[in-house]
Amino acid sequence: MTAALTVLYFGAGILFTAGVLLAVVRIVRGPSILDRVIASDVLLTTLLLVIGAEMVVNGHTRTIPLMVVLAATAVFGTIAVARYVSKQDKAAPTSEGGDS
Description:
The protein is mainly α. It has one domain. The protein is 81% helix and 0% strand. Helix 2 (33-58) runs antiparallel to helix 3 (64-91). The longest helix is centred in the last third of the chain and has 28 residues, at 64-91.
């Protein structure tokens, strides 16, 4: 492995780590459920990128089923939360057309 590839791998690792840490901070801090959902999508996407980069570096395709499961989890989780939030929005009364 050349020095340039080592630097490239190290840089990619730093960027992936920064993305994961920032996503975890957003999941913890919120403030709304939609912020947390977006951050969890970013976290799962970053995990998919890490697994894909590991496949490229090591030259194999054994973890493709894992990537498919993670992608499906991200999609179905986002759809479930979006449906939940849309139902909550319909159930909440609005005070815009009030009788003031």
